[in-house]
């Protein structure tokens, strides 16, 4: 096999030595010369829009990816919003970024092409699970105020667990943390996460809170938290679940299914446990308020007791008895006077009635010189014809009675005949 030997090697000379900057400059010149302007189609990922106005993103397809940047001047002219998963066509120049030794596409023009495959799959799954009610806000459970046992499903070597434990240790030391290690990206990670969540629900003593978390990454890195087994495991978990996947801009289906979504692993720790300093401060405030309340109640009770002690019943306790006695004596005098008046009225009524009876009494007539004659049956004799010769009669006088026998009867009727 023939091999071409460089002229400098054949001549026994040393090869030229380039600096990194020189090599990068050669590559930069070559790329920019070979690709003055290119059109590239791909799916947007890792979209970032800082306050500077520039836009940073990654264009990818099934086999490769390339970093891209859109400077502020071009970005300000966009007439549509960019988002992760969006399929676009870009025209731009290749540029070598010397400080990092990487190349990127400087986008001069961009047009939407459609929704990327991953984004489309995500939307379909989200619609399916939403229709089943897995994201229903009415099913969200509140987190316990003071959890005693916390289970974390995450990678034991990632930054997420370190951030979580650091914040947790700083805020609250009254909870035990159990980490169930799983992979959080790549093939098979979704099955491990779903199994870990189901395992956490069966632990005894039962955990108070479950946290599913991992750090930031691309859409592909976080994809396992969008897979159906993980989402269903979170929705069916009997323990309140906090999902803290990625950064603030990352929203996964696990976030939607969880009871609480945290923007970062650190915020998950803040949501999971209270601040020990805040609890201590609150307890101090309660103690002060309770002490003040007790003092106020004691002062009020003391004032009431003093007011009671100054009342007449306690200063001169027998005065009430004396007053009652005087009142009773008054009532006694009034009762006696009323009885005397009533007696006089009754006596007057008796005298009047007696006078009327005496005026109507036959005895009063007798007292004026008259007498009453009755037969032995008690009937008053009014006519001579009421008796016969031989009948016994009784004569009532004012001072006694006489019994006599009829010897003869001489009536006015016989005289008339």
From TrEMBL:
Q: Which organism's genome codes for this protein?
A: Blastopirellula marina DSM 3645
Q: Tell me which HAMAP family the record gives.
A: Exonuc_7_L
Which protein are we looking at? Answer: Exodeoxyribonuclease 7 large subunit
As one GO molecular function, the record gives: nucleic acid binding
A single BP term in Gene Ontology: DNA catabolic process
Q: What class of enzyme is it?
A: hydrolase
Entry keyword annotation includes ATP-binding: no
Protein purpose? Bidirectionally degrades single-stranded DNA into large acid-insoluble oligonucleotides, which are then degraded further into small acid-soluble oligonucleotides.
Give one Pfam family, short name only. Answer: Exonuc_VII_L
Gene Ontology CC: one annotated term: cytoplasm
Annotated compartments: Cytoplasm
């Amino acid at each position: 096999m023939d091999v071409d030997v460089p002229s400098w090697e054949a001549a026994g000379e040393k090869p030229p030595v380039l600096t990194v900057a020189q090599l990068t400059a050669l590559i930069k010149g070559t790329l920019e010369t070979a690709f003055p302007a290119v059109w590239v189609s791909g799916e947007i990922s890792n979209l970032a829009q800082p306050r500077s106005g520039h836009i940073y993103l990654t264009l990818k397809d099934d086999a490769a990816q390339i970093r891209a940047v859109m400077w502020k001047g071009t970005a300000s002219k966009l007439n549509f919003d960019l988002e992760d998963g969006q399929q676009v066509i870009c025209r731009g120049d290749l540029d070598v970024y010397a400080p990092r030794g990487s190349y990127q596409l400087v986008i001069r023009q961009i047009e939407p092409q459609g929704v990327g495959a991953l984004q489309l799959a995500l939307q379909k799954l989200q619609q399916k699970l939403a229709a089943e009610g897995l994201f229903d806000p009415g099913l969200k459970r509140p987190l316990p105020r003071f959890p005693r046992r916390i289970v974390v499903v995450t990678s034991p070597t990632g930054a997420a667990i370190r951030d979580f434990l650091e914040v947790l240790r700083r805020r609250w030391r009254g909870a035990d943390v159990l980490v169930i290690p799983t992979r959080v990206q790549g093939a098979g990670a979704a099955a491990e996460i779903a199994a870990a969540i189901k395992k956490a629900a069966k632990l005894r003593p039962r955990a108070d809170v479950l946290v599913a978390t991992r750090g930031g990454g691309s859409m592909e890195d976080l994809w396992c938290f969008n897979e159906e087994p993980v989402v269903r495991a979170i929705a069916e978990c009997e323990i309140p679940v906090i999902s803290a996947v990625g950064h603030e801009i990352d929203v996964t289906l696990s976030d939607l299914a969880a009871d609480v979504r945290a923007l970062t692993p650190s915020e998950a720790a803040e949501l999971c446990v209270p601040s020990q300093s805040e609890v201590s401060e609150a307890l101090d405030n309660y103690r002060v308020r309770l002490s003040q309340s007790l003092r106020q109640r004691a002062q009020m009770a003391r004032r009431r007791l003093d007011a009671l002690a100054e009342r007449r019943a306690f200063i001169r306790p027998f005065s009430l008895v004396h007053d009652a006695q005087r009142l009773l004596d008054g009532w006694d005098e009034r009762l006696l006077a009323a009885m005397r008046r009533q007696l006089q009225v009754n006596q007057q009524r008796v005298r009047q009635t007696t006078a009327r009876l005496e005026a109507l009494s036959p005895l009063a007539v007798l007292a004026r010189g008259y007498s009453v004659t009755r037969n032995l049956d008690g009937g008053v004799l009014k006519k001579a014809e009421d008796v016969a010769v031989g009948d016994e009669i009784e004569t009532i006088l004012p001072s006694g009675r006489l019994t006599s026998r009829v010897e003869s009867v001489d009536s006015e009727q016989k005289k008339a005949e």
